[in-house]
Design a protein that fits this description.
The structure holds two protein chains of two kinds. By secondary structure, chain A is α+β, with helices and mostly antiparallel strands. Chain A has helices spanning 2-10, 12-29, 31-34, 136-172, 174-188, 192-202, 209-239, 243-250, 255-263, 268-292, 303-309, 313-318, 324-347, and strands at 55-57, 63-76, 81-105, 109-118. Chain A contains 13 helices and four strands. Chain B contains 18 helices and 25 strands. The chains are: A alpha+beta, B alpha+beta.
């Protein structure tokens, strides 16, 4: 394992990817502290407000502590146009590590300190506001918690099932194998998209959208293990003919023990690679499902449903800050793929000669 | 060497970062803009078309300015395109619109006043319960056969009253279970005899007329065959039509092309035969974004603008080739509705939990919600200022709008007062409890995937949470929502929109009648064994029955005013806003007299393209 990590760091691309992911996950972990606002905080006068400008040189041309102005919404009833102008009558200095909106660290330690805040009446929307006047930057962090963890959740369901199923099927072979594999194929042929649409209709509506989405992901994983199980079975078929399996058999180990302790550990390298490479798939499917309205719903945030808001023509053109979740999805998925590729190269040098 | 490059790169990045941090505070200046769009565009409509007789043919003479012939107009429609071209079987808006292009009705609506004016018919006369319709002499179907009283009688008797195709028109013509009796007076006169005076009838006569010789066989073959008759697979040259345009081709999911009917019965003031245009093309576009791109690429000539696009287009207008018209409030309404249902489902369980029933049936509770809603910010944030707060059941452009209902601003203190009056109280965390100690918590549904409604839902939730209520806002898939509304009835509050008719409140009967098919706030799935209508429901039922039998406009208006007042007083449905309709039309297209009642392209035969 140490060797793998060493080689990961040696590879420039995977090093960058690793750093990016660490930064993202740390930011998500401490989202309450880093975000200036809570997930649901909204200021209705700031719908679609542009990002707050931060000034370090004041109007007289001197250096100053960083400060910002509030935006003032002006609606021109003749043009039917909403414009935001800086209200230059009051400067709001940016404060670091100071008191702000109350929150609970990890859900139980009450705290009020935030990384950056402004004075009470000020509004610091680092990445602008959305249609309801909520801070996009804060929502990005809270939304990321869902988007970036949902993949791992699926993995914890998918991999144990796939490993065990493939292991048993490959080890016993014969009729058991045939039966189990046909069943796996049947599971594979369930059309997942239609299943999701039906699920969206029949799931009890009194679940919160996060609960509902977790359930959807688990169900996706429950039908997604079959492909993985087939690969594992193939590997087990070749592993079981090796001498150490024969010797384990000859000293009278039980079948289950042989599978779990001797055969499956041999598939580790493949499993690690498959895991890293399937996380981005789930991140993407979260954004896809939320985009279609099947995933996380308002007022909860996720990168997918935040991105949905940006799909309008005028939003793409005139409110580019709404596209930031898309950028983060791109970065996160790319990083996972880079790391997955590197790990594969390390664990399985033969596949390099493609 | 490599190291040097790295160091340079890092220094460069750091400098870039520092540059980004240093920002000078310089006041910006924006040029003042003086255009005005908020006012509804005023039109001087041309005089109403009149009938003139030339060589024994009763032409309709358009009074609009004379234009030049030729050219084409390209329009767009949303969705999947028409399902049929048969006006009698169509059940969706697109199909009806396309059928309306091909078939004319006896009457149409005046764009300015909303009155019923003759189209295919020459004139009408009402004598007591008898409606005499006089037809034009000498006008023809597109295959050259004359349009006569037989066609009118055939259409009404054998198609509409026989219940072929879409039966909604027949159902709404039914007066106390009886249909009007139709008699032929002569070849160009038809008499409709009603059992009682029935106000909406004249407007119902605007329905399209079918050619008897072309439809007769299909009608004889029965309802099933008729449903597939004049469908989208019928070859275009097989259609016998009466409209200004004939179908040329229909390519599914792409376009519908109409060409000029050279034998149309309308002429201009120089007595030249209309229409001016050679071709009208409808492009089928997937969604609003697609439509905007098509308009930008000059592929279509007309577009309805929404939200922030208006300001963008308005800015570009002076240097562009289009003109923007503000038609005023649209027929659409956005509202939240409470479930006042107090019945049990077949399994013996209440559709709505009993403690919730207690809240919802409490008028003070509904008032509290109404006063807590921040309509001004909804209009501002979600409709981009392109809407008006709405308090009435009729849309703002309705000719029956009750103008005495003025509405109110958001006032959370008034809300709280209403709640305390009914014994609701707060605990120390600011949560709301009813007088029996139940925490006020309910679900709010809307259809997922609609940004406008989802954002509205978020706002409603926040507004009501200011009152201490806990609102679980759940956008769900559209079909599930509809199923909840009309079948399972297990919902508390829904955020929805409906489109009404600005001319005929009677069309809203399915919502307001206690047994209506869309009686949202108290849906009855079947007739209940005893009369469990609420007092105001009874009143509304009476008003709608009375108003449909009343023929005097003023008297009808008084009745419909009362219905709007009752809805406003009782608040089973709490209206939010009504969007404004703004369209952009290419300048080259002339004789455009948009009206909120008829839209933009209603006078397609008078429209021409400037050369």
């Amino acid at each position: 394992m140490k060797k793998v990590l060493k080689q990961l760091i040696k590879d420039k691309f995977s090093l960058i990817a690793l750093i990016v992911l660490i930064v993202i996950y740390t930011a998500l972990l401490f989202a309450d502290f880093i975000a200036p606002y809570t997930k649901d905080f909204s200021d209705r006068d700031l719908s679609y407000v542009p990002p707050s400008p931060i000034f370090t040189i004041n109007e007289k041309g001197h250096f100053s502590r960083p400060y910002t102005y509030n935006y003032k919404r002006e609606f021109d009833p003749n043009l039917l146009e909403t414009t935001y102008k800086l209200d230059r009558s009051h400067k709001y200095y940016i404060k670091f590590f100071s008191q702000g909106m109350p929150y609970k660290v990890f859900g139980f330690i009450p705290m009020k300190r935030h990384l950056v805040t402004v004075e009470n009446e000020g509004r610091l929307y680092l990445l602008g506001g959305d249609i309801n006047g909520r801070d996009v930057f804060s929502r990005l962090l809270f939304g990321g918690r869902i988007s970036m963890t949902i993949g791992f959740l699926a993995l914890f369901v998918l991999f144990p099932i796939g490993l065990l199923y493939g292991g048993i099927s490959g080890y016993f072979g014969g009729k058991v194998d045939v039966l189990m594999m046909r069943f796996a194929e049947a599971v594979m042929s369930i059309p997942s998209f239609y299943l999701l649409i039906i699920l969206a209709a029949i799931l009890p509506p009194n679940m919160t959208s996060v609960q509902r989405f977790i359930l959807i992901v688990i169900i996706l994983a429950l039908i997604g293990w079959a492909g993985f199980a087939r690969v594992v079975r193939g590997m087990v078929l070749s592993i079981k003919t090796q001498e150490f399996v024969e010797s384990a058999k000859s000293i009278g180990l039980s079948n289950m023990k042989i599978i779990l302790q001797h055969i499956l550990p041999q598939t580790t390298s493949y499993v690690i690679v498959a895991m890293t490479l399937s996380v981005p798939g789930y991140i993407l499917s979260e954004s896809g499902l939320s985009f279609l309205g099947l995933g996380i719903q308002q007022p909860d945030a996720s990168w997918g449903n935040m991105l949905k808001e940006a799909q309008e023509y005028s939003n793409i053109l005139y409110r580019p800050w709404l596209l930031t979740p898309g950028f983060l999805i791109f970065v996160a998925v790319l990083s996972f793929n880079l790391i997955g590729d590197t790990i594969r190269d390390i664990l399985d040098p033969k596949s390099k000669m493609r | 060497m490599k190291r040097v490059i790295y160091i340079f790169l890092i220094i460069f990045l750091v400098l870039l970062f520092l540059k980004a941090c240093i920002r000078k505070d310089i006041p910006e200046q924006k040029p003042a803009n003086t255009q005005n769009i908020n006012q509804r565009t005023e039109f001087t409509y041309p005089k109403r078309a009149k009938t003139i007789t030339l060589n024994g043919i009763d032409y309709l003479q358009s009074q609009a300015p004379v234009g030049n012939f030729g050219g084409e107009v390209i329009l767009s429609i949303f969705g999947e395109g028409p399902k049929t071209f048969n006006p009698f079987t169509s059940k969706d808006a697109t199909s009806s619109q396309m059928a309306g292009m091909m078939f004319d009705g006896l009457f149409t609506t005046d764009a300015k006043t909303g009155e019923v004016i003759p189209k295919l018919a020459k004139s009408y006369e009402i004598k007591g319960n008898n409606y005499y319709v006089y037809l034009r002499k000498g006008i023809k179907w597109s295959d050259g056969k004359a349009i006569t009283a037989d066609d009118v009688i055939f259409t009404w008797q054998d198609i509409i009253f026989a219940g072929l195709g879409n039966t909604s028109l027949r159902d709404s013509c039914m007066i106390e279970g009886k249909l009007p009796v139709i008699t032929k007076v002569d070849d160009y006169t038809v008499k409709f005899t009603l059992s009682r005076p029935f106000a909406p009838f004249l407007r119902q006569l605007s329905a399209e007329i079918a050619p008897k010789h072309a439809f007769e066989n299909a009608v004889k073959k029965g309802a099933k065959y008729f449903d597939g008759f004049y469908s989208t697979t019928t070859p275009p040259d097989k259609f016998v039509t009466s409209g200004a345009f004939k179908l040329k081709e229909y390519i599914p999911a792409q376009r519908i092309v109409f060409v000029k009917n050279p034998d149309y019965y309308e002429v201009n003031t120089k007595n030249e035969k209309l229409p001016y245009l050679n071709k009208v093309v409808y492009l089928i576009v997937g969604d609003a974004n697609n439509e905007i791109l098509k308009f930008e690429a000059k592929e279509i000539d007309l577009i309805s603008l929404k939200g922030s696009n208006v300001a963008i287009y308005k800015q570009k207008e002076p240097s562009s080739d289009y003109k923007i018209y503000n038609l005023g409030p649209d027929t659409g309404t956005m509202f939240i509705v409470l479930n006042l249902n107090n019945r049990k489902n077949p399994d013996g369980k209440y559709y709505v939990q009993p403690e919730k029933q207690f809240w919802f049936k409490d008028k003070n509770f509904r008032y509290a919600i109404d006063y807590a809603i921040d309509r001004d910010n909804m209009v501002q944030n979600i409709a981009n200022g392109l809407a008006e707060p709405l308090f009435t059941a009729e849309s703002l452009n309705s000719i029956f709008l009750n103008e005495n209902i003025k509405g109110h601003k958001r006032d959370i203190d008034v809300s709280r007062e209403y709640l305390t009056q009914s014994g609701f109280f707060y605990n120390k965390n600011g949560k709301l409890f009813d007088k029996y100690g139940n925490n006020v918590e309910f679900d709010l549904y809307t259809n997922a995937g609609n940004i406008e409604r989802e954002s509205l839902g978020v706002m409603v939730k926040q507004d009501l949470e200011d009152l201490g209520m806990k609102v679980n806002f759940k956008p769900i898939e559209f079909n599930t929502l509809v199923n909840k509304m009309v079948n399972t009835l297990d919902w508390d509050m829904i955020l929805m929109g409906l489109t009404g008719s600005p001319l005929e409140p009677h069309n809203g009967k399915n919502v307001w009648n206690s047994y209506g098919s869309l009686h949202l706030f108290n849906q009855r799935l079947e007739k209940t064994s005893f009369d469990d209508r609420l007092d105001f429901e009874k009143e509304l039922d009476e008003i709608f029955d009375k108003a449909s039998l009343e023929t005097n406009f003023e008297a009808r208006k008084a009745l419909y005013n009362k219905y709007q007042q009752i809805v406003y007083d009782e608040k089973p449905i709490i209206y939010l806003y009504s969007p404004t309709r703004i369209v952009a039309v290419r300048k080259k297209i002339k004789n455009i007299y948009p009206s909120m009642l008829n839209g933009v392209m209603y006078n397609i035969e008078e429209i021409y393209v400037d050369k």
